[in-house]
Amino acid sequence: xxxxxxxxxxxxxxxxxxxxxxxxxxxxxVIDQLPVAIECKVIELQEEFNETRVVAEIVGxxxxxxxxxxxxxxxxxxxxxxFDTVALCYREIxxxxxxxxxxxxxxE
Length: 108
Fold this sequence. Notes:
With 108 residues, this protein is mainly beta. It contains two helices and eight strands. It has one domain: Roll (Pnp Oxidase, Chain A). The protein has helices at 12-16, 75-78; strands spanning 20-22, 29-31, 36-48, 51-63, 68-69, 72-73, 81-84, 89-92. The N and C termini lie far apart (46 Å).
C-alpha cells in the first residue's frame, strides 16, 4: 500500500486504517480488513530482467464470507486487482472467458 516502505514509515498500517493478526501458518501478519489473505511459504526468489519473481507454496488462506460462493472464493465478488509491470498500472481481473479443458474442444 502506497509508495513508501514500511521501514521508513513505522506506523504505515495504522495510517491506512488497518489492523493485523499473526498468521497461524507462516511468520507474517494478516491484514484483518482485507477480504482474502493467502498465506505462502517462499520456495525460491528468481532474479531476471531486473525484477524479482517469487515462487511460493500456498499453505493457508483466510476469506471473508462476503466473497465466497459455495465455500470458494468467487472472483466476481472479490474483484481482485493485479499490478501490470509493463504499463505500470493496476488492473482489475475480469470475468471468465472460457472453461479450462473445454474451451478448445471445438478445434479437435
